[in-house]
Amino acid sequence: MAMKLVTAAAMAGVAFGMTATPQRSDAAALASKKSAEAQTQPNIVTVMIDDLGWNDVGWHDEKFATPTMSSLAETGVVLERFYTAPTCTPSRSQFMTGRYNIRNGMQDSVLHSTEPRGVPLNEEFLSTKLQTSGYRTVAIGKWHMGMHQSSYLPLSRGFDRHYGIYTGGGSHTGHFSVSQSFTVRHQADAQIWQGYNIWEDGVPSEDNYGKTHSTHLYSSKAAEFVDLFETEDDDTPFFMYLAYQAVHDPIEVGDEKYVSETTCSSITSPPGNKDDSGIDWDNRQILCGMVAEIDDGVKNLVLKLKELDEWDNTFMLVFSDNGGVGVHGSKNLPLRGEKADYWEGGVRVPAFVTGGFTEGALAQAGVSPYSNTDMVHITDLHTTILNVAGYKPESTAEAKPLDGVSHLSQWIAGGSSVDGVEAARSEMLVNINSALFGGSGAIHVGDYKMIVNPEPSESRIYAKTRKALVAKQGILDQEDFQQILTYVHAEVLGTATKYIFNIAKNEFETEDDDCTDAEACSNLYDNEDFADVREMMEEKWGQWKLEAAPSTFMWADDGPLADPALFGGMWDSWRDGDNTPKAQYFGMSVLDADKFEGMTAMLHHSTDLAVSMGSAMAATGGSGSFGMMAVALTVFGAAIGMVSYRAGKRSGGSSTYESLA
Predict the structure, then answer these.
(1) Closest CA to 161 of 222, 217, 117, 246
(2) Which residue in 74, 183, 312, 403 has the fewest CB atoms around it within 10 Å?
(3) Measured between alpha carbons, how far is 313 from 3 in angstroms, rounded to an integer?
(4) Residue range 236-256: average pLDDT?
């Protein structure tokens, strides 16, 4: 196979947006330019690791077994100030849209299994943009951006191929997901639903019925798709979104050797009796093994790309979606906090840029691999990738403005620590929750960070509010609902707490006040020496708050209508394109008033007819009651046959209506 040659000059041209000076006729120059662009468009591989904490990688904790990722990081750019949202869905939404979640109502909570919600369909995903740029696209692993309608699924949002789960998680080896609990009105007992979760190109995968760990399935499928793309057309670039389900719980490895035969086995709890870290050290060994399995999968993917002469033309990003969870064995220290928090440990995570494309561009610029301390937001990856791909919107008037900024030229130039190189961003919105979740959040302006309610406890607010809604049978007016939220917020959050830290001097957000420089060890919010900083941060907070769209979170739950048992035992979309639950019949509710009155008149007429026919049958010795029932049912059945047909056909021809919720 002929190797695709991409020179260092060509890579630098892509990186810095340079174009060659025309030397021939306009037509010939244009043809040559298009040919050069096709040859220099690199493959793009993004590896997202679920719940990977700050110290869950080898370059932050030498006991963690990540030889491949550590080596790749050493040949590229390590992003030491990379920020995400505090939880899964919000981070994925920002990566795919390139926009802050306040723009589209995704600022609150993760998606729940039976919740009819997703990233709004008027948002154009990164995958769709890359498709229009000539890329083949594949999504592998965890989705968690909407599944109640098929229009929210990967194959409808810019991906040519898909393998993985739609839900937010599940058993790594049993391949099933479990819903949140649901209480049907007027019933005392809560219910949960369970179903298989692996799909491949819209069809349930046979892998559901095996025991292979999700990490090994996803890694194997990634290499398989690279092979397939090479066979189909090795001149067309591809975009791979590889979103590992690990190290999200349950904490389990696919092969014990990744613990026992690696440095993971040497992990122990700190000496002494006192340990207030909140870390489960037994789980940390296992979580380390889960990371080692991912590292092995990344190694096999890189080897496959090199085998097919694709590595030198591949741009790769590896990053976590949010901070780690201590009880799962994750360690965010020395950063404060964990997943779901606005402390640094909840939103500042491991990330690096690598790939042969990156190595070549750095070499061409005369820059050695390095650690970058510039502030980078997950939306920036979206915009940077578009820069790498040479994407141009078909209509700039229709394109939504992006919050992400491209860091490509800064990364290749060595970052803002190099004289003459300016950082790509100086301010950043981490998030601002809506009033439904207490208006918590965090922002950065320059060296300063402001936090409102650093531990927003979204999951507790969600659980307590749902419990109150159950007690009200799910039916209440606005005043009742406001009272519930006020009570829940008071119990969970108390009085709003505000913090301002100088992250450049106090990146661990300490408050011990035991130093001569207040910026290095304290919360500055109530410090009058920094009143001007507080005023600036509050003003910026207010600006972003005013720009926020209403939350898409509606406390809605379809419960049993989404039961996998209705859909062949699989977690599948359970609403039609018109947003009507598939597991629902309408009866006469589909009729307007005129049609309803017409049917009523017809039914009265058929009843009179049945009575008269029944009397005649009785006079001749027939069964009057049977005759009357038969005729009435026949006429009634004809009258509503069209209604029943319309409802029963909603699943696209499949007979999934035998069990109705």
Answers:
(1) 222
(2) 74
(3) 10
(4) 97
One DSSP character per residue, 347-370 reads HB--EEEESHHHHHHHHHHT---E
> Strands of 427-432's sheet, edge to edge?
427-432, 441-445, 448-452, 498-502
Helix (H, G, I), strand (E, B) or coil at 185: coil
> How many percent of the chain have pLDDT more than 70?
81
Q: State the Cα–Cα distance between residues 414 and 410, nearest whole angstrom.
A: 6
The pLDDT tens digits of the residues spanning 527-542 come to: 999 999 999 999 999 9
- Tell me which residue of 21, 37, 18 sits closest to 390, measured CA to CA: 37
What SS3 class is residue 118?
A: strand
In three-state secondary structure terms, 64 is: coil
Task: Please give the backbone phi and psi of residue 204, each rounded to the nearest 5 degrees, phi first.
Answer: -55, 135
Please, is 621 exposed, middle or buried when counting C-beta atoms within 10 Å of its C-beta (0-12, 13-18, 19+)? exposed
> What is the number of residues in the chain?
661
Looking at residue 283, its pLDDT comes to 96
Cβ atoms within 10 Å of 178's Cβ, excluding its own: 17
Residue 430 has pLDDT above 90, yes or no: yes
Is the pLDDT at 639 greater than 50? The verdict is: no
| pLDDT for residue 586 | 65
* AA letter at 392: K
CA 197 to CA 170: how far, in whole Å? 8
Residue 631 pLDDT exceeds 50 = no
pTM attached to this predicted model: 0.85
Measured CA angle at 170 (ends 167, 173), to 5 deg: 135
pLDDT of the residue at 660: 28
- DSSP code string of 512-580: ---SS-GGGTS--TT-GGGHHHHHHHHHHHHHHHHHPPPPS------GGGG-GGGGTTB----B-TTS-
- Give the CA angle between residues 146, 573, 132 to the nearest 5°: 55
- CB 146 within 8 Å of CB 111: yes
Query: How far apart, in Å, are the Cα atoms of 209 and each of 164, 172, 297, 312, 569?
Result: 14, 12, 22, 38, 12
For residue 582, the model assigns a pLDDT of 87
* Helix (H), strand (E) at residue 429: strand 427-432
Q: Flag whether pLDDT at 634 surpasses 60.
A: no
Give the 3-state secondary structure of residue 149.
strand
Residues 6+ away with beta carbon under 8 Å from 353: 76, 77, 79, 315, 316, 317, 411
pLDDT band of residue 609 (cuts 50, 70, 90) is low
Bridge partner list, 352: 78, 318
Amino acid, res. 230: E
CB atoms within 10 A of CB 395: 6
Neighbours of 623 (CB within 10 A): 12
Distance CA 557, CA 258 (A): 39
Which residues are annotated as catalytic?
88, 144
- d(C-alpha 488, C-alpha 477), whole Å: 17
Neighbours of 511 (CB within 10 A): 12
